[in-house]
Amino acid sequence: MNLSLNTVNLNTIHERYRQNSYFTGNPKSVATVPQTLQQDVASLGGLLVYCLTYIPGSIIASKIYNKFNPKETIPDDKALSATDKMIQDTDLPGNGFKYFVINKNNKEEVLDEIYKIEWEKASNIKKKLIGPERYKRRLRKKLNKAIKRHGAFYYPSKNYALAPEKGQCYLPHEIGHAIVNKDTGLLPLVSATSVLSKLLILMVALSPAKSGKSKFIVEKAEHFIQKHAVALTLLSSVPQLTSEFTASKIALDHTKDTLDKDQQNLLKKKYIYAFSTYVNMSIISACTVKLAVMAKNKITAMKFK
Ligand SMILES: [Zn+2]
Question: Which of 7, 167, 233, 295 could form a disulfide with 152 if both were Cys (CB 3.0 to 4.6 A apart)?
């Protein structure tokens, strides 16, 4: 009994020693840094590289990219009449859908209306935890940010769209989202899967290398994700890109009757630009995953003596 226990212990120690050793090409030369620790440092290093490149990279890229945003757009009254026509053509009003155009002057008015919609739909736990006053304060912050932006927003769970004065031309696109979401209810899922799948790919890509020859399916899957992390990151954007493309397509189809040819072309240019920003962000995420994996591999391959 004692002997077998000792054998097990010796084997375990040997295995640990083997795993913790870092062979440098010379079998006698063994690193003093345990490999598990080195792998953890490599994963953290990769994550650090990801954070340091993704956040500034996306800010710088969007600032540069913003220069290509077509300045000219359709008149605001045209954008609103096209939006109203789109809503009339669908059963969105029956579905309780509303949209708001916000500016500094009507901010409090819009806040009251949106507060009513959101508070009614908020869960009881949220109502108890946050309370009406804090909820309103948070909403005011959200609206203050929205006023400064150029784009419009659609909130599927609250069933309303919001546009700052500068972003009224995007309202038909948001109505396009609302139409798709009314029929499928998939929009919240699209946004969530896009974020979660990217996070999952990054986590697996930065974890210690897995063998493709393993018997275990999970390990095989992890190996596959590690091998194709960049391509999979790009692929994970496909549902969101499809959703954005569809919303714009619906908007452009519905606004044919309300806009003249020139206005339609201007709107198309705006929407192509908006779509390309999503493509741009997908490429940036894939590139930063690539850099993070390269950093992880570099640290893993370092030889400590
Ligand atoms: Zn959109």
Answer: 167
Alpha helix (H) ranges present in the chain? 2-20, 35-66, 76-89, 107-121, 124-148, 171-184, 187-206, 217-227, 229-235, 238-254, 261-301
Residue 261: φ, ψ to 5°: -55, -45
Ligand 1 centroid – CA 244 distance (Å): 5
d(CA 99, CA 153): 10
Q: Is residue 12 part of a domain?
A: no
pTM greater than 0.90 (yes/no): no
Residue 250 lies in a domain: yes
Distance 75 CA to ligand 1 centre (A): 20
Number of domains into which the chain is organized: 1
Over the stretch 13-44, which tens digit does the pLDDT of each residue have? 444 444 444 444 444 444 455 668 888 899 99
Residue 72 CA to ligand 1 center (angstroms) comes to 20
Q: Is residue 163 part of a domain?
A: no
Q: Which two tokens stand for residue 172?
A: 């038909």
Q: Which DSSP symbol is given to 167?
A: G
CA of 115 to the centre of ligand 1 (A): 23
In a domain, 10, yes or no: no
Domain extent at residue 66 = 39-97+168-301
The bridge status of strand 160-164 relative to strand 98-102 is parallel
Q: How far apart are the first and last CA of the chain?
A: 39
Residue 301 alpha carbon to ligand 1 centre in Å: 43
